[in-house]
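We store sequence with structure; for instance:
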Amino acid sequence: MGDAPLFLKIRLKPLFPKFLSCINTNIGATGAPNSGIWGMAIDRYRKRETASHSEKRRSLLKLAASAGLSGTVAGMPFGRAFGAEPITLRWWSTQAAPDQLKAYKAQIAGFMAAHPGVKVVFEATSDEGYPAQLAAAFAANQVPDIITHLPSYAAQTYYADGLVEPVDDVVAAVGVDKYYPSANDVFKTADGKLCATGLANTAADVLWIRRDLMQKAGVDKVPATWDELRSACKKMQGGRIYGAPLPYGLNSMTSLIMLGFIHRAGGQIFTPDLQVAIDSQATLDALDFYKSMREFCPPGATGYSWGESLTAFVSGSTATGIYGGRVLDNIATQNPDIADFVTCATYPTISKSVQAWTYNDFPCIFIPKKAKNISASKLFAEYLFDPAGYISELLGAPAHLLPVLKTIAADPRYASNPIIKKYPNEVALMSTAAASGHNLGYESPAHKPNRRANEIVASNVLAEMVQRVVLNNEAPKPVIGATAKKLEALMKA
């Protein structure tokens, strides 16, 4: 999947006590693990490292050379401890579901076994909380050493502000030819560098629908247009089941879902050269439809964000959903009775003449420029793509985090996962949609990267527009005009 104004605008003093002590899961920070799974993981990775020592050494030397090193990290040769003083790498991520944490533990154990001089500590942040937490960290020069799963536009923003290290050498060490074509285009910066590398793809706003409820209500096909969706929701709604879990809260989900609806009406937020373009008929049409859907959403949708919307569909409270592939794993564990009846499609558009538009936040890896040990951070970043660990990480949220390496998609260890095997059509659809997906920092292939996207999402300006029109019943045209002015101010800030 699965966004507090940017740090330059935040009043930082009140944040320090709260955010400089981030949520410490402290995986790998307490010495030798006690559980059997840790021991097995370490043994497995040690055996693999021994068997592939020469190959790994060549890869590490390649990375060192591209980073301007001379076969050493922290003054020590590769294959030996990093130095007399132990190195601690702090790893931040917005993705921390239980199965993902298990995968992270194994990855950390493997890396630490191969590099005894390095300790890795995992710290969880969140989609809503990371802007403020990173604001405090950057301001205090107490940054994490590696950050994963944030959207591409966040990396672009921080890089433009001089806060992020280029990772071209990490991509070279992983192997450019292993990535899908153009997989890293969204991370290209104005100076020709890569501010991050993709860790996964997501199709975050596909339409999920229950075929059993479709059959019961006489809905003969998955909706492809807004009129068809509205009609299907009306027919399927009844009893304790609502039609859809669209969000109307003042949060990032509402902003990003509205972004998609504007594009599905044939519009855009900005022109390709980043002039504000939201004041359009397409935005009026998107808001009108979004307002018309309110009657088919649960009462609590006025405060929905990602978690509430996901739960509404998974629990069976709504006939349709709007989310990424995490839906499938959550249904398998929380509501297996409906597992045989769910399917997905790209979210409907205003008409068949308007092309589908899928939101992909391009979850990525980037390294703060003031990380305490850039070389060790880059080695760990490369290690996260090691097939055994990378596959386990992806399968911590199967079908939600889709591989960016074509070699992994074809690997039997990935393809044999029960969720991937049970839903091949849905996984294929999401993979295709995500590969051609976009976000506010990358609205289309013609658009320049929008370095202000992170600030715009954090400002909730689009969610506020939705609330004023849908919940407060304000006239849409003046609200859109006011929103355009706010966007212009944010772009000039």
The two ends are 29 Å apart (CA to CA).
